[in-house]
Amino acid sequence: MKSRLFFIVFLSIVFLSFYSKIWDPDFFWHLNTGRWIVEHRSLPDHDPFSINTPLLSGEDFFLRSYWAAQVFYYFIYKTLGLNGFAAVKALSFVSLFVVLVALLLKKGVRVPIVLSALLPVYAGLLDFRGDRPQMFTFLAFTVLVALLETGRLRWVPLLMLIWANIHGGFAIGVAVISIYIVCGFLNKRYRKPYDPAIFIWGAAGIAAAMFNPNSFGVFTKMLSMQNNAYTKGIMEYVSPINLALTYRDYYISYTALLFAGAFLVLRLRHKISLEKKALFFFTAAISLTAGRYIPFLLIAGGYITAVAAGEAMGGRLEGSRFVWIPLLMILIVFAVDVRTAGLPSSGTAEGSYPEGGVSFIEGTGLKGNLFNNLEWGGYISWKLPQCRVIADTRRLSAHVSLEASAALQGDKGWEDTLNAYAINIIVTSAFSSVGDRYDLLWNLLNSPNWKLVFADKTALVFVRNSPENSELIGKYGLGIDKAYDQALAQARSFVEKFPNTPMHWSNLGMVYFFRRQFGEAAGAYRKALALDPSDANLAYRLQLMEKASGQ
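^ that's the sequence the OP posted. Answer follows.
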């Protein structure tokens, strides 16, 4: 009875932790695609939201990969509104942990070990609570492992059929099934019990997965996306090793589970089944290639580590007297998460989308091609169907996305790009969501061809200085100080959140420089240089600011 209470407390914590606001830049283009599919009763064969440009070979993969999840998204929106997604996301992660708990208890693992193993899984998955179809992939992966581990193989084809039409991550599921099939043959070779059902139902599951709009294309696409122009600038495709060394972004729970699991699996290799060993090292290997694969190691590693720990501990953890320790640690992680991420709530996260700017465009009736920060493209196209965005996070046309990114970074051909795509409206900001500086802003402020007409703490709206927009510019035109104010507020927020990152202090110094506050600029550059003394460029900037301020 006590054990049941402990798990109820744990699952309640999981629900509250994942009942969170929508912030993911991919969310709205998924929702928008779901609306398009329902309205047209077909899957898109072209990009219905961005400026129409030819797609590169294979880029149309993203148009149809998630159709079932996208239709489900739109159904939730129509019935429960945006707030319903908080509950859907929370329930999907609760279901994931219910499956893990049931599987571990069925394997005879003691309750204290179960909760101890789930602690790093819970803490690690907190970094992956974006409102994307990938949350269904995490659940499907967990269910697949449970089916394979418990021998309920008849359900594998149905699971794979559904999964393959929800998210491209089903390719991981195909790999896992293949691992179990191969290990089954190896077990037979070493005269261990062999169940032919794993081959029959596993092969049926792989075949069922091919009934998706992209068929075999998902495998080649996943391989090609590891190191191409599309993925090089996307954080989730960066290896956790590089994330730690270059960006100081540490996944502590993942790292702890990786090393603890590897130690236990190797230490108890004669007691752990071949399938479990292969599954652990497979998920470990793919997780080291890109951060987006970390959850697979967390889920599989948490399960396998718990089983291995159960083998090592034997029956020494009887009863529930030790349960309070991992449960208390889970509560501490929850409290820390609430302090940093806020209390459980629904709706959209403040500052994640240019809501004020979009409302301004909608209210003034502005139309035409729109240049945007790529992470806002999905939201803008959802809210402003009369505008075509330059691109969104799908980056369906790789060359357009690269041109847009170059313009945002202040490339000297930025105005040629805007002219080439007949841009009439620009929705941008001083910095990206991770603090990268958008030099396009400074170019716009110094150009007579663009006028600032809206500014809030999230977004700035510029329109082309043309006769068609003259009345609007006369009514809403703003001075450059409004843009400087936004840039300063954003730069300050980043140094407050990440006080040990030199880039953010350097950006703050640059904003002070543009505001001609040379003393404050020198102070910011001095802080950046203290964090990175080897940066000669920072030293040069500091010298200039000290001279300008008379220090």
